[in-house]
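Take a minute with the sequence and fold tokens given here and flag any structure token that looks odd. Thanks in advance.
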Amino acid sequence: MYPTKMLLATDGSKESAPAMRTAVELANATGSELHVAHAISTAPQRPYPRHFERAKSEDILQRKRVTALVLLDEKVRQAEKMGGIVVNSYYREGDPVKEVLRLADELDVGLIITGGRRLARPRLLWSSSYPMEIFRHAKCPVLIVRGGKAEQPNPINQR
């Protein structure tokens, strides 16, 4: 009945924290395996025609890789602090949406969990296309956990 494998697709944004909590709670409650993934884009930001500019671009990409690996390790540690058991973590390069979907197919996951943030305008539901692109193209259910500001206490009720 419940998915046996869940994939938490994190993009490193602050909106991914509620998704992490939800993934841990769902995996623990259903006895499902929890897998964590982070993918980075390796597409160059702009063309670098000269040799020294190409080297600079490669240096930026290398720093981006190191940052992504550190972030992935931190996400796994956070999940474990919350009481979750992460079966495995995955780092991928390429188009982040395609890489997450490819990994979900490889692992045969039953649910992908990711974070997102609503915009103020009603027609634009999510600030990032990352969660919506995963949702649109996934072969399994996708849970987009809404992130947002912490609730502020109501000053009227405090009197």
In short: Residues 51-81 form the longest helix (31 residues). The chain is about 40% helix and 20% strand. Confidence is low (pLDDT under 50) at residues 149-159. The first strand starts at residue 5 and ends at 9.
